[in-house]
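[Structure tokenization] protein backbone as discrete codes

[Encoding] learned vocabulary of local backbone shapes

[Begin record] amino acids and matching fold tokens:

___
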Amino acid sequence: MSMCYHTDMDRHKFQTTTIRLEAQDKEAIARIREAYGCPSDNAAIKLALRMTARLTIVPNAQAPAKEDLFPPHG
């Protein structure tokens, strides 16, 4: 199973990356979407990456607020 996601927040300059996911990866994404209210698989993946990076850099840090990671689109 493959999934594409965008790595750049500027909608006019998206870079697309393809990753191959196993069934357990898709299940994890679904759990993240439900737990954090992510509107898409893409948002759930980015949230997980950013939370992991933050916890790796600053152990025991609080996860950022969802609004800080995914501001509303106007």
User: Anything to note?
Assistant: The helical segments are 23-36, 41-57, 66-69. Residues 2-10+23-67 form one domain.
